Amino acid sequence: xxxxxxxxxxxxxxxxxxxxxxxxxxxxxxxxxxxxxxxxxxxxxxxxxxxxxxxxxxxxxxxxxxxxxxxxxxxxxxxxxxxxxxxxxxxxxxxxxxxxxxxxxxxxx
Length: 109
Description:
This protein has five helices and four strands, in the order E-H-H-E-E-H-H-E-H. The protein is of the alpha+beta class. It has one domain: Alpha-Beta Plaits (2-Layer Sandwich), CATH 3.30.70. Strands 2-3-1-4 form a four-stranded antiparallel sheet. The longest helix is centred in the N-terminal third of the chain and has 11 residues, at 15-25. The protein starts with a strand and ends in a 5-residue tail after the last helix.
């Protein structure tokens, strides 16, 4: 059972995209991906809203998330959020790895 957190960053005048690019270029994203328990850390842009960036952030369990949140890296992330004046919405999902036969027929591999 993993936990996935979808964070939508919203800014103005390209701020959310600039934030994501700085997260990547500064090495912060790569460092997060190397943390124990991190399964996925990826940014996506919204086709219908160019001022919004989606972060899909997945972890093995809540303990891994708690350790990540207690790390010094969170201060860096918070500073960048402030720098770009971003606002966020957050959704959390617990994985269900059991894909039914009914659903499986709609998945093209």
